[in-house]
Design goal:
This protein is α/β, with parallel strands linked by helices and 434 residues long. The protein has two domains: 4-199, Rossmann fold, CATH 3.40.50.720; 294-429, Rossmann fold. The protein has 19 helices and 14 strands. It has helices at residues 12-23, 35-42, 53-62, 72-78, 99-111, 128-139, 159-164, 176-185, 187-191, 201-232, 236-244, 265-279, 284-308, 334-344, 357-363, 373-377, 390-393, 397-403, 418-423, and strands at residues 4-8, 27-31, 66-69, 81-84, 116-120, 145-149, 169-172, 196-199, 315-319, 348-352, 368-369, 382-385, 408-411, 427-429. Strands 3-2-1-4-5-6 form a six-stranded parallel β-sheet, sandwiched between helices. Helix 4 (72-78) crosses helix 5. It starts with a strand and ends in a 5-residue tail after the last strand. Bound molecules: nicotinamide-adenine-dinucleotide (NAD). Residues 8-14, 31-34, 37, 72, 85-88, 100, 103-104, 122-123, 152, 154, 156, 263-264 line the site of nicotinamide-adenine-dinucleotide (NAD).
């Protein structure tokens, strides 16, 4: 039977969950503190860029299975199932900030009515779901509820696709009653071939961190190998391809670059180290990954200085600001570190990104934001490709060369064809390309 669901937090995760759960036939209310977001959503507009979201949003709103509000009280009261999908950003000391989760739990404790399943989708440290259970018991001693951990694995840029076709759905639960409700919520996925992992709360919480820490480690591994490859004159792409042919390794996440970014890997790796430190468990591998990733971002500017000397007074065209392609998310984007460092060195920045310029401008108002990649290249002394947007693969380098003052390219994503770059007369550096 379809459920009455409330999703609290309508950001990158909550909005996709709300839209997807409504598409499964459930009655869904998306709640957010941010009145501007809710206003946009009620006008049928997505506050984030995500391929395909508009169609799903409008389809489910038109069918009246999906509504949005800032009114958490009413939304909690009427819900059979409440998904918590608010942010868990890192604090200054690197630990996850659970204040947003706790605020939602308080609202749930004060307002839930009848049997309610509370599902944590936000990424939270191991033990948080058990703590949520304790908080709710204290807030509502006679409350009839279950707590479930259902971590999210979607990739920004492919979030809609990932919601409907996940590699797996992980559900940490304690009772058959909770399991039955979650089975109904995800009935559509259950009847397809999506594997479900039914496990304890702690196991579900740690699966999420283990997965992200592993992927961050894999990226960092190939980045360090790329640095070695470029020092000895080897080709990292041939190395990665050959490594990926080994079934034990797999070809994914072996693309070198300027270091990982985004809203998850940086904070989740730090959270793993913090958990280890608090529990007396050695997490030195992940600790090294974090520092190596920071060094990789800084290395990009060092490479640039090697390519074109003192950067003071130079104009840099930066193509790509989002932390990866197909998103407008700039959280922890390598472009942030690169541009900050270039500005400190006295560079003037002209930037372009197909989707992320508005978000970037809030943090870097002094950058000159350009309508096209070619506009950004006008009179530039150096061109830096910082995000792997497909449109930069097809740059007309003859045109770029005519627009620029000097012919220097730092391609931190290895997007460009080296033979074409050389033919066009550019001084060029990629990552690990010998
Ligand atoms: N973004 C990703 O790719 C991704 C992937 C997997 C897991 N996650 C995890 O999912 C969680 C959410 O991430 P996100 O990227 O969607 O965050 P986000 O910052 O995009 O969205 C969070 C939303 O929650 C709202 N919010 C905060 N406190 C609230 C409250 N008390 N009541 C109602 N709304 C409130 C905010 O206004 C915001 O709209 C995090 O724990 C993150 O680690 C994110």
């Amino acid at each position: 039977m379809a459920k009455e669901i409330t999703v609290v937090g309508t950001g990158y995760v909550g909005l996709i969950a709300a839209v997807g759960l409504a598409d499964f036939g459930n009655q869904v209310t998306g709640v957010d503190l941010d009145a501007d977001k809710i206003k946009m959503l009620n006008e049928g507009k997505s506050p984030i860029y995500e391929a395909g979201i508009g169609e799903f949003l409008n389809r489910n709103m038109d069918s009246e299975r999906l509504t949005f509000t800032t009114d958490i009280k009413t939304s909690v009261k009427k819900a059979d199932v409440i998904f918590i999908a608010v942010g868990t950003p890192e604090r200054e000391d690197g630990t996850p900030n659970l204040d947003y989760v706790d605020a939602v739990v308080n609202s749930i404790g004060e307002n839930m009515d009848g049997f309610t399943v509370i599902v944590t989708k936000s990424t939270v440290p191991v033990g948080t779901n058990r703590r949520i259970k304790t908080m709710l018991t204290e807030l509502k001693p006679d409350g009839d509820f279950e707590v479930v951990s259902n971590p999210e694995f979607l990739r920004e840029g492919r979030a809609v696709e990932d919601f409907f076709h996940p590699d797996r759905t992980v559900i940490g639960y304690e009772t058959e009653r909770a399991k039955d409700v979650m089975f109904e919520v995800y009935r559509t996925l259950n009847v397809t071939s999506v594997p479900f992992v039914w496990c304890s709360l702690e196991t579900a919480e740690l699966i999420k961190y283990a997965s992200n820490a592993f992927l961050a480690t894999k990226i960092t591994f190939i980045n360090q190998m790329a640095n070695l490859a470029e020092t000895v004159g080897a080709d990292i792409h041939m190395i990665a391809k050959s490594m990926g042919m080994d079934g034990r390794i797999s070809p994914y996440f072996l693309h070198p670059g300027p270091g990982y970014g985004g809203s998850c890997f940086p904070k989740d790796t730090k959270a793993v180290v913090d958990m280890g430190d608090k529990l007396g468990v050695d997490m030195s591998l992940i600790r090294s990954v974090i520092s190596a990733n920071e060094a990789q971002k800084v290395r990009m500017v060092v490479k640039l200085e090697k390519l074109c000397g003192n950067l003071k007074g130079k104009t840099a065209a930066v193509l790509g600001l989002a932390f990866k392609q197909q998103t407008d998310d700039i959280r922890e984007s390598p472009a942030l570190t690169i541009i900050k460092s270039l500005e400190e060195k006295g560079c003037h920045i002209q930037a372009h990104d197909p989707k992320a310029m508005d978000n970037f401008e809030k943090e870097f108002p002094h950058v000159l934001y350009c309508n096209t990649a070619y506009d950004a290249c006008k009179n530039a002394d150096v061109l830096i490709i910082a995000t792997e947007w497909n449109e930069y693969r097809g740059l007309d380098l003859e045109r770029v060369s005519e627009l620029m003052n000097e012919k220097v390219i730092l391609d931190t994503r290895n997007l460009l064809d080296v033979a074409y770059v050389k033919k066009s007369g550019f001084k060029y550096q990629g990552v690990g390309r010998g």
